[in-house]
Amino acid sequence: MGAVKQTVSDLVRMLNRRQKEATKLPIILDRLESYLREEPRKIIHLSLFLLLTRIEEEAAKIIGGKITRWSVVMLVSPDLRVSVEETYDVSADSWLERLKSQGFSILTLEQFRSFIRSLQLEVTQGNYMPAIEVLRANAEFQRASPYPPSVRKAEAPREPSPSSRWKPSDFLPALPPHPPLPRGLFKD
């Protein structure tokens, strides 16, 4: 009889623990749901901000602090890929007119900022797809190296010095009558 009472007591304790866990579960699920609702928005907003920053940096490189009549335009292709170009007159440039006829959008920097803000507003309202399509089309642009080309060249592996006394043929295997040791290893 004592074993039955012990088993029932253990079972009641286990059920009480499970009941406490079950009452905490809806709170955990609500937190998880709100996190899963907000996190994609944060990620997309940040990605759009980074895209805008890269475009602004590219425009600044083109202008280079010069005060000229030249202006910078953002070309948005029909597949939503963005590129930065320099032009003298947006309204009179025949090349830009030809691109417009092919479905490109030509935006100034301020118009591009407004475009990004409109995408961020759509994301806030729950419509993620337009922003995701723009980000997907410009994924290569966002992966561009943050280092200038000169830094990347400096990191390239060096060529071996021509004055080296060793040659690759010194390390080729010996011909069959000799043991297979590197030829240059035991030079006098």
Describe the structure.
Helix content is 56%, strand content 8%. With 188 residues, the chain is mainly α. The protein has a domain at 30-144. It has a three-stranded antiparallel β-sheet with strand order 2-1-3. The N and C termini lie far apart (95 Å).
Residue share in helices? 55-70%
* Structural classification: mainly alpha
Calculate the terminal CA-CA distance, rounded to whole Å: 95 Å
Strand order in the largest sheet: 2-1-3
Note the quaternary state here: single chain
* Beta-strand fraction estimate: 5-15%
Set out the fold topology.
Layout: H1 2-63, E1 71-76, E2 82-87, H2 94-101, E3 105-107, H3 109-124, H4 129-137, H5 139-142, H6 149-154
Antiparallel strand pairs: 1-2, 1-3
Helix pairs in contact: 1-3
List its salient traits.
188 residues; mainly alpha; three-stranded antiparallel β-sheet; elongated
In short:
With 188 residues, the chain is mainly alpha-helical. Helices cover 56% and strands 8% of the residues.
